[in-house]
Every structure is written in structure tokens, then in C-alpha cells.
Design a protein that fits this description.
This protein is of the alpha+beta class. It folds into 4 domains: 5-166, Sandwich (Jelly Rolls), CATH 2.60.120.260; 181-266, Immunoglobulin-like (Sandwich); 307-356 and 388-479 and 496-728, Glycosyltransferase (Alpha/alpha barrel), CATH 1.50.10; 741-841, Immunoglobulin-like (Sandwich), CATH 2.60.40.290. 24% of the residues lie in helices and 23% in strands. Strands 14, 16, 17, 20, 21 and 22 form a 6-stranded mixed β-sheet that branches. Strands 1-4-11-7-8 form a 5-stranded antiparallel β-sheet, with no helix packed on it. A 5-stranded antiparallel β-sheet has the order 2-3-12-5-10. Strand 18 (224-229) and strand 19 form a beta hairpin. The N and C termini lie far apart (67 Å). The structure holds ligand 9MR. The site of ligand 9MR has 11 residues, from loops.
Length: 843
């Protein structure tokens, strides 16, 4: 706000749309930021404008040569209107040179019904304008729009002190946090850690009781006072009831006169979550009809498949002046609750799905993901890869002939809610190519080249060629950055530092090909040895961790690989230390929580899970099991962030098509959908109205309009699905038995078409092994051609060799040896990291 004499201009009072005397300006203020003191958030503008925060005013240079008022708009969404309430709408505005603008309060979606329409005559010195209107509707998401297009000449518009007073008092929002004993509302593993948090004023330890479904106390103890927790501002105690190990349903925990929400002790729920979190992707698909038979209640016509009113995605032009061609960029997943498709966000999502699959090849105890009930189910390819391919095909389409890759494709302007994908009438546009997008394509295509190789050689080859081309293009254009202001109609996903993207891409290319160029790049990158395990963790804009994790967990011959593996373990130690200090057991505790904090928590858990896969050391696994407690209810809000999991769970995530909160005919998000979770910056109006001054854990509201705290995205469900698979793999939480076998796998020779390998299994246990089958996986499309001294079967990259009648017995301390000739395949052929004998990992 600029200080000025506040005189209501006579001209404004005479303005056309007065519906009576201006209301007394004493109703509640509905506009969270009308003064522009420090920010223009959460106001938006059409793509032909840019905001300029000019001395406490919001200003914009309006281009000349547009035809209609609505060709340039500055707007604010999500203003609640109450039927029959009278509102006073006032603002100060200037125009240089003078102009007539349109000021509207309206429905944000077609037919854009106008409840107030004014035509203020703006001058260079500026005036304050005042109008009143009575709302004919109850509407949670009214829109303020200044339409400033239609001028032949360019001009400058400035706005300040926008106020809409009247209607309902904004709620004094106090979340209903239920009982003060906070638990994982879904399930603890019987033999895993079991921790809870008590919110209390008490300073000294208090007794607790664990009760079964009949209310019988089955265990008790005393709390551990933990003082005031910075992330919630609450005085808390922690409760450890790990010693109780009996599976069952409907347990509760009582302390300080409060009884927790119910929970199970058992692993079954995680088998469901493992599938649900992945099934999320099918209903995010663009370009194809969603089959209601596969997802009852979620069927819908194909979105953006080149059919009106959609204006895409089969032949999408660039933003004006960006390119002179169109691309078919149909398919892929919608990024989030909007209809945009962004390469850097798609990149990490598809990478994490492929990594979830690769983990089943390389990690002890990881079991394949079952059927996802998608159209491709029943083909010869694992469903998780079929789903990943849906996105990877789209990423490939975003690549230009020269290898550079478009950053994103989305609507020209933001659309309102609700809006099913097939009804989106907005113009679709390709945005400029960027180095970050190009490197995301290089990384994911390199990974796809190895994981798809056993199933589809042509697709694998296409990916490898695209990855190489992208790598070369990024090297030639290393600093083409996404614009920080290209955020109209879609997210900016800007990133000023792409050195981590270079590292990730080089790592994936090296793992897949084993080639020197990529090895040298990896070894020379500062990200290879830096401490990249920051408290904040990793996400779409911080991807060095993806490279380091894969170098550590996917077999390869990188010099110094042991140190790479040790560095992941060191990262896990950092997160474990954070978790142990945190009275809610969260491996994330920065002073402010970032946008999508739940995905950052989950990604830090991925690092601990990888450390467990590498070392077998239980404390890392237990860190993951405690982390999931936070996501599923052991938190300050006493709620689960996964739809359908836990007695109280997020269900109104910001989405244009799971918009049940706005249209009862539409569904809520499917079960297994993660909400982004607490975000200290609360950029959206709902959060700003209700959560101002929030402590980090309280910066969340399960409101469909709270896009900055409560959205769903493909890159948030990807760590959820990775982690839920990991937790499901822990069964009842029993510690894996120590290995009783050792394997020596020696490639004695290789030639262009093949290689010959000898494998020795030694029984290092105390008992005789009577009948064995040994399993390992190749990196890519290598195949056992013929073998000796064992029976071989192969599925995809995974080989099982079973003892024959004469060598099926291995006495303690003894060994058997068998061998095979393999068929070579493009790329590297490293020694597998993992050998599993009769289902248990060997040393
Ligand atoms: O997840 C993104 C977050 O990391 C950024 O800070 C934020 C602002 O740029 O954008 C988030 O991504 C949103 C994107 O811009 C548009 N689609 C929905 C995404 C999730 O809220």
C-alpha cells in the first residue's frame, strides 16, 4: 500500500454499476492481499502481462494491439461469496495514459456470470473507486478480475488497496485435532517400532496404556517428556510401545486422560497401500479415456486427445514467438490438480516408479509389485513398467529434433475448478526448451533403456538414442533456464542450478552404458562427493540424490562405488539423527516447511530405506517405519495425509476433476492419494485467510482451494508408492535372518554376442541346504543362453537357477558350482549385487 489522501473520487461514485449507496466499510475483509506491501501473491495474470511490484503497488505494462477487454486480465481467485449479502468493493488504480478498464466479480468458470461489472475510468494520477453489489449466489470460489485488454496502444496499469468487505466473517479457524494422543492411524508392524506422541501441558512423565479392541489393557509404561516441539509449538511427550508385538485390529493408546484414534498392529494395510499408491497414476492419465470398469466411479472421457472443446494435445503450438512448429505431446500424466504436463516433474515421477521396479531386482526382500488393474495388465510386462511407460512416451514426445526438450505444455491461462480434462477449452501451448527438461529426459530415457530392455528392445533402443541426443544437446546448451515468470496457466518449475540434473543424467547414462564419457563426468562432478543429504531433502529441483542413490543401489562398475554406497548410509545417518531428535519422529525438521513437505519427508525416508537395502542394518529400516507413522497420523494435526488410510485422512486435495467438494457428482481423490502437506509459505488465499502465523505442522488445511498446502501430484505419490512398497516388503517387521550363503559370480570371458559365467554357492550356515534355487537379475536384456549343473528359468531380467538332483544338497561349509553362457545385450553387464537363495539374500 502506498500512503495517500484517501478521497473517494466523485467519478468513481458516479460509476455505472452502483447498486445503491456504498456499504459501510465494516464487513469482514475477504481479500487476503489487496495492499501489495511485499508480494503480489496470490494474484494472477494472463500470459501477456508480468507483475511489477512498484513501491507497494501492483503494476503491469499492458501490451497494445489486443482486441477484447479479456485479452489481458489481472485476477484473484477463491473469494467466498454469500447469497443475499451486500459487499463493498473498493480499489485504487492508475492508468498511464488514462484508460477505461473493467472490474468484475464473477464466476471463475464458464459461463463467467458477473455479479459486479464496473467500467472505471482510470487516470494517470489515480482514484479510489467504490462499488457495492449483492451476491445472488453462495459461492466458495468467486473471482475478482480486472480486464485491461482491448487497447491499440500499450499502457501501464497500477493497482492498490483492493478491498472486498462484507459477507460472512472469515472463520477463526481452529483445526479439529481430536485426541491428544497421536498415532499412526493405519498400522504398526507387529515386530517393528511403535511410537506415538502425546500433546500435554504436563512436564513430568505420565503413564500410558495400550488397549486392545475390547478395551483390555495389554501393555503399559510411562511417557518420555520431550519439551516444546518447534515444528508444532506444542509441549509433547513421546511414547514407545515397541515391546508389544501381537497382531490385531482396533488398538488404542491412552495417556493423560485421552485416547488415541484406533490403529492396527499388522502389515496387511501396506500391501494395499503399495497398490493404491501406484494405481493413482492410471486416473491421472491424459489422452485416453479412463475405464470405469477398472476404476469404478473414476471413469471419464479422454482428456486433451485432440477433441473439442480441448485445444490439444495432438498438435500443440508454442507460446507466441517461441517456435514455429507444433508437436504431438498427447498422453502422459496430468501433473497434479491442474491439466499441465511438465517434464521436470514427470521426470522424477517416472524415475521413482522405475526405481521402485529396479529395487525388486537389486534389494534383499523386495518383492515384485502385483497387478495394478490397468488396461495393459496381463501383457508380458510388469504393470508398474507399463504405467511408467505411459509417462515416458510423453517425455520422449517433448524432445525436439535437435535433442533439446520442451520444459512444459499447459493451458494459456489458469482455469477454474471444477473442470474435467476433456472439458478444458483453453489454448494449449508448448513452452521453451530448457537444459533441465533435456537432462530429465536424458536421465529417464537412460534408465528406461535398461529397465525395458528385456521386454521391448525397440523401445529400449529408442530411449537410449533419445538419452544420448538429449545429453549432447544439454552439453551444447548448458544454461537454458526456465523463466521464473512463465507461471500463467501452469507452474514455472524454474530452477537456477542444473548442475545436479547433469550429474543425475550422467549417472543414469553411465549405469546403463558403462561408457567412459559418463563415468568421467560422474567422477568429476562436485555432486559426486558433496554432502547432498540436506535436511530439506530432494525433489524435482534437487536431483543429484537420484543419481547418487542409483549409483549406490543399481549394479555398476564405477571406481570407488563402495564410497558411493557409504555416502548413502551417511545420508541415512543424518536423517535418522533428525528423526530421533524430533518428538513426532520425522526425518525432516527445517525451521519452515516447504511446498509439498510430505514428499520431502518421504524422500528422506527413501535414503534410509536404501541404507537398509545396502547394509541390512535394522535402525535404517526402523527409521522408515517411524517416518510413515508421521504421514499416517502421528502428527500435530492428528490426521493421515493419504486418502482412504486412517480414521481422519485428507480427501479434498486440490484437483479439477476429483472435485467432490465443489460438485457432488465428482469423486474425491482415489484412495492412496497423498496430499502435499504443510507448507509454511501458505501461498493460496484459503490458507492465507485461515492459517496466517501457523507453526510448520499447522500450515495445512484439507480444503480443495488450498492449492499450496493440499494438492496432489505425480511426483508426491511416487515416493509414497516407493516407500509403501518398502514397508510392505517388511512383512510383520521381523528382522531378516543373517545370510547363510555366499555367492561368487565370475564372468570368465565375454565376446560381442555373449559371455560365460561361473557361479559358486557356499553354504555359510549351520544347517544343510537340501534343494536350492538361486535368483539374480541382469542389468538389461542379457539372457541365459544355455547352462550346466543347474536348471535355468528367466523372466524379464531375472534368472532362477535350481539345483539338480545330484547337486541339490549343500552341506555347511560346502559349495556347489554351476555355469552358463549368456547372450549379450546393448550396454553394461555388471555383476549383480543381489543373489537370493531360496528367497533369502546371500552375503
Ligand atoms: O511442487 C511445486 C513446488 O515445489 C513449487 O515450489 C511450486 C511453486 O513453483 O510449484 C509446485 O508445483 C505446482 C505446479 O507449479 C503446478 N501444478 C501443481 C504443482 C503442485 O502444487
Amino acid at each position: 500500500m502506498i500512503r495517500r489522501l484517501s478521497i473517494l473520487a466523485a467519478a468513481a461514485l458516479a460509476a455505472t454499476c452502483l447498486t445503491g449507496a456504498p456499504a459501510m466499510a465494516d464487513g469482514p475483509e475477504q481479500i487476503a492481499n489487496g495492499t501489495f506491501d511485499t508480494t503480489t501473491e496470490p494474484w494472477w495474470h494472463t500470459g501477456n502481462l508480468a507483475f511489477d511490484l512498484d513501491g507497494g503497488r501492483l503494476c503491469a505494462d499492458v501490451p497494445g494491439g489486443t482486441a477484447n477487454p479479456w485479452d489481458a486480465i489481472i485476477g484473484l481467485n477463491d473469494i467466498p461469496l454469500v447469497k443475499d449479502e451486500t459487499y463493498a468493493f473498493t480499489f485504487f488504480a492508475t492508468a498511464t495514459p488514462g484508460k477505461v478498464a473493467k472490474a468484475l466479480i464473477q464466476l471463475p468458470v464458464d459461463p463467467y456470470t458477473q455479479y459486479l461489472s464496473a467500467n472505471p475510468e482510470l487516470s494517470v494520477s489515480g482514484n479510489t473507486y467504490a462499488y457495492t453489489f449483492t451476491s445472488p449466489v453462495d459461492l466458495p470460489n468467486g473471482q475478482v478480475a480486472f480486464q485491461i485488454g482491448g487497447s491499440a496502444e500499450p499502457w501501464r496499469f497500477c493497482l492498490d488497496d483492493v478491498s472486498l468487505k462484507g459477507g460472512a466473517e472469515p472463520d477463526v479457524y481452529t483445526p479439529d485435532t481430536g485426541p491428544r494422543v497421536r498415532v499412526n492411524q493405519v498400522a504398526y508392524l507387529p515386530k517393528g517400532p511403535k511410537n506415538a506422541t502425546l500433546v500435554t501441558e504436563a512436564v513430568g512423565a505420565l503413564p500410558w496404556q495400550l488397549k486392545d479392541a475390547d478395551g483390555v489393557t495389554v501393555s503399559d509404561g510411562v511417557t518420555t517428556p520431550r519439551g516444546v516441539d518447534a515444528s508444532s509449538g506444542q509441549n509433547v511427550h513421546s511414547i514407545d510401545f515397541s515391546a508389544y508385538r501381537k497382531a490385531g485390529e482396533g488398538y488404542t493408546l491412552t495417556a493423560d486422560g485421552e485416547t488415541s484414534r484406533p490403529f492396527d498392529i499388522g502389515g496387511g494395510a501396506y500391501q494395499d497401500l503399495k497398490l493404491d499408491a501406484l494405481q493413482f497414476y492410471y486416473t491421472q492419465r491424459s489422452g485416453v479415456a479412463i475405464d470405469d470398469a477398472l476404476r469404478p466411479g473414476y471413469g471419464r472421457p479422454a482428456g486433451h486427445a485432440g477433441v473439442a472443446p480441448n485445444q490439444g494435445d495432438t498438435a500443440v503450438p508454442c507460446q507466441p514467438g517461441v517456435c514455429d512448429y507444433t508437436l504431438d505431446v498427447s498422453g502422459g500424466w496430468y501433473d497434479a490438480g491442474d491439466h499441465g504436463k511438465y517434464v521436470v516433474n514427470g521426470g522424477i515421477s517416472v524415475a521413482q516408479l522405475m526405481s521402485e521396479f529396479e529395487r525388486t531386482k537389486n534389494a534383499p526382500s523386495a518383492t515384485p509389485v502385483g497387478g495394478l488393474n490397468i488396461p495393459e495388465s496381463g501383457d508380458a510386462v510388469p504393470d508398474i513398467l507399463d504405467e511408467a511407460r505411459w509417462e515416458q512416451e510423453f517425455l520422449l514426445k517433448m524432445q525436439r529434433q535437435d535433442g533439446m526438450t520442451h520444459h512444459k505444455i499447459h493451458d494459456e491461462n489458469w482455469t477454474g475448478l471444477p473442470l474435467l480434462p476433456h472439458l478444458d477449452p483453453q489454448k494449449r501451448e508448448l513452452h521453451p526448451v530448457t537444459t533441465a527438461a533435456t537432462l530429465n529426459l536424458a536421465a529417464t530415457a537412460a534408465q528406461a533403456a535398461r529397465v525395458f530392455a528385456p521386454y521391448d528392445a525397440a523401445f529400449a533402443a529408442k530411449n537410449l538414442a533419445a538419452a544420448r541426443k538429449a545429453w549432447a544437446a544439454a552439453k551444447a546448451h548448458p544454461d537454458v533456464l526456465a523463466s521464473t515468470s512463465d507461471g500463467n496457466g501452469g507452474g514455472t518449475y524454474d530452477d537456477a542450478d542444473v548442475s545436479d540434473e547433469f550429474y543425475w543424467a550422467a549417472a543414469e547414462l553411465y549405469i546403463t552404458t558403462g561408457e567412459k564419457e559418463f563415468k568421467d563426468f560422474v567422477l568429476a562432478s562436485p555432486h559426486h562427493t558433496a554432502d547432498i543429504w540436506s535436511e530439506r531433502g530432494f525433489d524435482w529441483g534437487h536431483v543429484a540424490q537420484l543419481g547418487r542413490l542409483d549409483l549406490a543401489t543399481v549394479p555398476n562398475d564405477l571406481p570407488g562405488r563402495a564410497a558411493v554406497r557409504a555416502s548413502v548410509v551417511a545420508g541415512a545417518d543424518t536423517y535418522l539423527a533428525t528423526l530421533r531428535q524430533h518428538p513426532y519422529g520425522v526425518p525432516y525438521n527445517p525451521p519452515t516447511y516447504d511446498w509439498g513437505s510430505n514428499n520431502l519427508v518421504l524422500n528422506n525416508m527413501v535414503v534410509m530405506a536404501a541404507a537398509f537395502d545396502i547394509t541390512g542394518t535394522l535402525k535404517y529400516r526402523d527409521g522408515v517405519l517411524q517416518g510413515i507413522d508421521y504421514i499416517l497420523g502421528r502428527n500435530a494435526l492428528n490426521q493421515s495425509y493419504v486418502t482412504g488410510y486412517g480414521e481422519v485422512a485428507s480427501k479434498n486435495q486440490h484437483s479439477r476433476w476429483y472435485a467432490h467438494a465443489l460438485n457432488a457428482d465428482l469423486p474425491n481423490p482415489p484412495v492412496g492419494t497423498l496430499s502435499g502437506g504443510p507448507n509454511s509459505s501458505i501461498q493460496d488465499p484459503v490458507a492465507q485467510a485461515k492459517l496466517r502465523g501457523c507453526k510448520p505442522q499447522f500450515c495445512y488445511i484439507d480444503d480443495i482451494e488450498s492449492w499450496s498446502t493440499n494438492e496432489l501430484t505425480i511426483n508426491w505419490n511416487s515416493p509414497l508408492s516407493w516407500i509403501s512398497a518398502f514397508v510392505a516388503d517388511q512383512g510383520d517387521g521381523a528382522a531378516p535372518a543373517p545370510p547363510t550363503c555366499e555367492v561368487a559370480y565370475t564372468v570368465h570371458g565375454s565376446w560381442p554376442q555373449g559371455f560365460t559365467t561361473q557361479v559358486t554357492i557356499r553354504n555359510t550356515g549351520a544347517k544343510a541346504i537340501d534343494g536350492w534355487s538361486l535368483t539374480w537379475s541382469f542389468l538389461g536384456a542379457q539372457k541365459v543362453a544355455h547352462g550346466w549343473s543347474a536348471d535355468f528359468t528367466q523372466q524379464g531380467a531375472t534368472v532362477t537357477a535350481a539345483g539338480e538332483s545330484y547337486n541339490k544338497k549343500i552341506r555347511p561349509g560346502q559349495s556347489v558350482t554351476f555355469g552358463f553362457n549368456g547372450t549379450s545385450a546393448p550396454g553394461a553387464n555388471p555383476t549383480p549385487d543381489l543373489f537370493t537363495l531360496n528367497g533369502a539374500a546371500c552375503a
